[in-house]
Amino acid sequence: MTISGVALLAICTLLGGLLGDLLGVALGVKANVGGVGIAMMFLIAARLWLVRHGILSHGLKTGVEFWGSFYIPIVVAMAAQQNVVAAAKGGPIVVIAGIGAVAVCFAMVALIGRFSGRVETMDEIEAREAEALAAPVPHFKSGRIG
Amino acid sequence: MIMMSHILAANALITAFAVVGILMWISGAISKYLTFGRIHASAIAIMLGLALAFWGGISTGGEKGVADLPALAGIGLMGGAMLRDFAIVATAFEVDVVHARKAGAIGAVALGLGTVVPFILGVFVAAAFGYTDAISMTTIGAGAVTYIVGPVTGAAIGASSPVIALSIATGVFKAVIVMIGTPFVAKMIGLNNPRSAMVFGGLMGTVSGVSGGLAATDRRLVPYGALTATFHTGLGCLVAPSILYFAVRAITGG
After folding, report:
1. What pTM was estimated for this model as a whole?
2. Coiled-coil intervals in this record (chain A) (predicted)?
3. Where are the domains of chain A?
4. Displacement of CA B63 from its chain's centroid (Å)
């Protein structure tokens, strides 16, 4: 059923939010500490459990994946309601601090990438998985269903 | 005309779906015919969204972009924290645990650097613009981390309202540059695999910037970047008003 996927997603999101708030209280900060991240962990764990027990139905997947695919439109809606006028009026301090922070971080992504050696690109991973699917011999794939 | 706007306002969220959908179609056409696919449709859609927000802010004088127009109030719900978090969590469903585990330690390093490095940079810029008190410098530095860490930190340590506004603007501007700039530098910084996406998410931090930027670069990388980025704001809210503030205060002496 599609609703089981949406409900699973909702329960994970709510549980994560609750734990994030509790963590914030425990640490004495006025913030939700990693609630979304915790919820993502729950969802990943739930998916592994469902796959392992062979009860990951098509409907359940549809329910979760619909919201996942809805993400970009939601980001567009989020951009459309930012206070862009205030950000533009903020003056040079905003521009310099913003550009500086991004430039330094871009450089660090490149540096960490260089120092930690080569890994498979997304295209290579998909090509390998497609090959594995096409191969006639049964192939074990870790926790991922095709 | 009045009936039309009544229907739009009464079905606010449905209107938002239609408006964003039309925006995505227009972006798709611009991407295909004007940039020949060089700039991804999602990046154009986000830029159009920001341009609309600028126009909405000027015409209404409000703070919530187009969501301040009564007929488009649904944009506020669609792009608000509730549905945004719901959709971010859903992207975790596609995360390949094996790859995520590989990037565990390096993701943690990126998270730490992504909090401290922009903070230090923001503090120096604040100092260069004549802010000498530890509270203002810390708040602007926190804004350079993300636009959520900025105001949370400012409120926690008692910064003045203009300084808090400045820190939000810095964070928003950073998110915007990440959204727009990522597709252009993606090749240069090796952003084509799950591990670099996690490093990227940890370093850049702002969930909106990271997911928007990655979506415009390669949709498949979004869950990996979002996974580390979501911890970024929590970590920032934790260390900026505490350890980092104490460090700035110790150096400036007040």
Report:
1. 0.67
2. none
3. 1-81, 83-146
4. 17
Alpha helices in B30-160 (DSSP H): 41-60, 74-78, 81-91, 97-102, 104-128, 134-145, 149-157
Nearest residue of B to residue A120, measured between CA atoms: B193
Our CA-based measurement puts residue A32 at a distance from the nearest CA of chain B, in whole angstroms, of 7
Using a CB-CB distance cutoff of 8 angstroms, which residues of chain A are in contact with residue B48?
Answer: 76
Q: CB distance A112–B106 less than 8 Å? A: yes
Are B254 and B133 contacting, i.e. CB atoms less than 8 angstroms apart? yes
In total, the C-beta contacts within 8 angstroms joining chain A to chain B are 325
End-to-end CA distance of chain A: 19
Spatial separation of the C-alpha atoms in residues B142 and B234, rounded to whole Å? 12
Greatest CA separation for chain B? 62
Q: What's the ipTM? A: 0.73
A80 and B49 within 8 Å at the Cβ level: the answer is yes
What stretch of H or E contains B15? helix B12-29
Q: How close is the nearest chain A Cα to the Cα of B217, in Å? A: 12
Asked whether A121 and B192 are in contact (CB, 8 A), the reply is: yes
Taking residue B22's Cβ as centre, other Cβ atoms within 10 Å add up to 10
